[in-house]
Amino acid sequence: MANMDPQSRSPEGSFARSLEQTPFGLKEGERRLKIQLAFNGSPKGHMSVYGNGWTSWSGVALVFAEWTDSDGKTYFRVTDGDWKDYYLSVNHNAYVGLYGWSNAVPWKFETVDGKNRLKCLWNHQLLSFYSDSNKYLYAWDDYNELEATPEWLNS
């Protein structure tokens, strides 16, 4: 996987609309959140949808609920809008997108080099972007690693 450069391939197609039941044993957290993004301390906005289920940043934030499995791994499920009930995930080319449960992957907020980051636990890469002109989000350490901070909502 280390030789792959996600920027060399654009995402193809769109995600089929197939709502799936939440698997047994997955428990919803009590709070909802938005994910604030920044690069080198400069705000980028919030995680949002760009195109057909791929993620980016903008002022229009996705709202997530945390879901935790019996192993303590955390998944993020969209709570509102057109992508309600889809989960934050990543494809084999490291593009971050919204998928049904069968393709969901766990994520973890952690501090790396003194900055808040979001790490994909499937490929063990941090949330990043390639350039300002390419607004797709990736889980790929070789790109520009984003600061990712949960913005907890009251309801």
SSE topology sketch:
Layout: E1 27-39, E2 42-50, E3 54-58, E4 64-68, E5 74-78, E6 87-90, E7 96-99, E8 107-112, E9 115-120, E10 125-131, E11 134-139, E12 144-145, E13 147-153
Antiparallel strand pairs: 1-2, 1-4, 1-13, 2-3, 4-5, 6-7, 8-9, 9-10, 10-11, 10-12
Structure write-up:
With 155 residues, the protein is mainly β. The chain has no helices and 13 strands. The protein has strands at residues 27-39, 42-50, 54-58, 64-68, 74-78, 87-90, 96-99, 107-112, 115-120, 125-131, 134-139, 144-145, 147-153. The strands form three sheets. Strands 1, 2, 3, 4, 5 and 13 form a six-stranded antiparallel β-sheet that branches. Mean pLDDT is 88; it is low at 15-19.
Summed up, what is this model?
By secondary structure, the chain is mostly beta strands.
| Coarse shape | globular
Largest sheet: 6 strands, antiparallel
Compute the average pLDDT: 88
Strand percent estimate: over 45%
**Category from helices, strands and their pairing:** mainly beta
Strands, total number: 13
**How much helix is in the residues?**
under 10%
How much is the radius of gyration in Å?
Answer: 14 Å
The helix count comes to: 0
User: From N to C, what is the helix and strand string?
Assistant: EEEEEEEEEEEEE
Key features?
155 residues, mainly beta
